[in-house]
Amino acid sequence: EMELVESGGGSVQAGGSLRLSCAASESTYSTNKCLGWFRQAPGKEREGLGGVYTRDSGTYYGGRMRGRFTVSQDNAKRMMYLQIKTLRPEDTGIYYCAASERYCGVEVEYFHRWGQGTQVTVSS
To answer: How far apart are CA 84 and CA 96, in angstroms?
Structure first.
């Protein structure tokens, strides 16, 4: 069983929107404190966007990510979502979800389980 599976990526024009999904296995969801969203743009390091607390409905965001990005979850379905509005070409990249047993934040090194990623391409 795949621990984390992202979906919902694709090619969109600037100004459009997307909702990405992350499906977590039962074991991953129950044993990790937080799930996070990350993205890696071409030629750049992976950066954290925000995430959810698996024990309740709480969400958190990286400092730069409020406004166009909305993180949400469905606890019953073990799903996490990332809504991105008013997409820009610089949003192009691979979007990953990841799980951390003890940490909730945007630091990549504290997340140890990763999905395969979903590609988002924004054209101008």
So the answer is: 14
Choose among 40, 46, 53, 47: nearest CA to 100.
53
**Amino acid identity at 80:** M
Q: Is 105 exposed, middle or buried (0-12, 13-18, 19+ CB in 10 A)?
A: middle
Residues 56-86: tens digit of each pLDDT: 889 999 877 768 999 999 999 999 999 999 9
Q: Kindly tell me the burial class for residue 84, based on how many C-beta atoms sit within 10 Å of its own C-beta (0-12, 13-18, 19 or more).
A: buried
Residue range 7-51, pLDDT digits in tens: 999 999 999 999 999 999 999 999 999 999 999 999 999 999 999
Helix (H) or strand (E) holding 27: helix 26-31
Q: Tell me the CB-side half-sphere exposure of residue 41, using CA atoms within 13 A.
A: 10
Q: What is the pLDDT of residue 2?
A: 78
